[in-house]
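re the bet — no i am not wrong, look at it urself. input seq straight from the record:
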Amino acid sequence: MSKRLHIISFDNPYPPNYGGVIDVFYKLKSLKQAGVKITLHIFEYGRVAAAELENYCEEVIYYKRRTFVNPFIGTLPYIVSTRNDHQLLKNLLKDDAPILFEGLHTCHFLNHPDLKNRKKMVRMHNIEHDYYRKLEEVESNFFKKYFFSKEAERLQQYESILHYANIIWAISPNDFNTLKSRYKHVQLLPAFHANEQISSKTGIGKFAFYHGNLSVGENDEAARFLVNKVFNDLDVPLIIAGNNPSEALKNAVANYAHISLQQNISTEQINTLTAEAQLNVLPTFQGTGIKLKLLNVLFQGRWVIANQTMVENTGLESLCRIANFPEEFKQAVSELMKQQFNDIQKENRSQVLNREFSNAENIKKLIQAI
């Protein structure tokens, strides 16, 4: 008898071109390959309906996210109160299949009495209130800063709804330890991603590369760190790619002839730059969740330089050159720009990644729980 599953996604997971939706999309794909029949519920707000998803799901149902809600009022987090369509509850009640809630965002009905006897699982993509506190720290706009502060408070209070979940799936060892200290039934389920095998090129490239959704404060902060404090006096070309960079980042890049900014380019173009680069440089100042771009550059790129916050407790530390301060980044860049990436390094990387981050192996944990 085939297994069935409802998945409630906080956003349209196609195209899979940013953090959380990458995990959702490739989880869908892996479930389909394993024969699971999926009803996918999507809260959409700006990303158009995707026929591609019908290749992996029995049914795809869209709900409008209620973004007209005043983000400064109410006790529910804004990311939850805008995703509470009662038609979703009606659709969930059409059968008795287990339900996977993707993120706290989608947990509005997790404690609903009509779902009391259903198997309910929550995928935690990070520790949400920690994430929003970090967004508050790096935000300069007063109203956004206040919103992030208030949202962090609400999320911290709201997180206790996880007591109603049968299983909480943590995405990283750090998050697993944090959640395990507060809740029962926490299990580790590593991130799902686009890569089935190592495709890193051997040899040597000519530039360093950083990419991320630049409209997110932590990524903008990381990019400005690289421009202003690392590559500012290095004779090494740096390409930065991502959506919606800030004026501060654009102005910083404009000061240097060897640093360029490529805005709003496709996933394919980002993958090409990742593969062609000699170095992928990945600082982060936000420690929750796991950075899917770290996985991608390890599967697709040559040398990787990252800070401790990026790699801590990921099991990927040995595959990266660790640098925490500007001078350490500068030294690592200068040394690795001259070193060929060879088959020995590629094989070593392959063994670690296939052991810990195989979609085919990790999906077995989820299927066993359904």
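see?? The CA atoms of residues 63 and 85 lie 7 Å apart. told u. also Residues 142-158 form the longest helix (17 residues). so pay up
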